Description:
- This protein is an alpha/beta fold.
- It has a single domain (3-250), classed as P-loop containing nucleotide triphosphate hydrolases (Rossmann fold), CATH 3.40.50.300.
- Helix content is 44%, strand content 20%.
- It has helices at 15-28, 44-48, 56-68, 79-90, 112-126, 141-145, 162-178, 197-206, 219-227, 239-250, and strands at 3-8, 33-37, 92-94, 97-101, 131-135, 150-158, 181-192, 211-216.
- An 8-stranded mixed β-sheet has the order 3-4-2-5-1-6-7-8, sandwiched between helices.
- Helix 7 links the parallel strand 6 (150-158) and strand 7 (181-192).
- The longest helix has 17 residues, at 162-178.
Amino acid sequence: MTKVIAITGKGGTGKTAVSALLIRSLSRKGQFILAVDADADTNLPETLGCESVKTIGEAKEFLQAEITKPRPDNPDMNKESVLKSKVYEIIEEMPGYDLLVMGRPEGSGCYCYVNNLLRGIMDKLIVNYDVVIIDAEAGLEHFSRKIIRDIDDLIVVTDASRRGFRTAERIHELVNELDSKVGKIHVIANKVTDTNHEKLVKLADDLKLNLIGMVPLDPKIEEMDIKGIPLFEITDDSVAAIEVEKIVQKLGF
């Protein structure tokens, strides 16, 4: 059965870096992975080392135009098949994972019909994978639309600050308000140092947050970012990669 893991968190916390490290770890364990970039900023492809530029947003705009176009030659055009073929064209097959980029929010007009088609296509698509990793927006917009209906594990990435943990608490509350189908909610503290480690453990306990991991501040990640090297190529001695391996085990792999 496919396991769906979504990673969210406010900008600057390193959620995309954590997503990339999770994908790296799971791919090395032989899992067949679909990586979904559902953040409008679209940073996951670059972090993974993929130059993908095609997005679901473009496919939806294409289909929206097709729906409104007069088609006397083929009035019964199978719109779901058209969108499905576009989705499969967009998927990038990379060594160790497949990548699907959602892209920026659509423009003016109602995309409700297209979104309904996309939900059905995504339901059929994700069952072909062992794991789906979603790099999501902090606002959980894609969850509220339920493009991907069920989430087994939602991971909130926070920086090592009280404000960051408060944001994680609010995201937790938002999930409950949306009545989303989320199995478990976890928190990962990122860029943790020896001086704030214990304080963050206590803060998570005070806020009743399930702290599943604490990723240390890793100079290797900063160096790779400056040099433009994908995190997928990080070495095994990276302190961040080592901690993510432990998190993957806690998630049941």
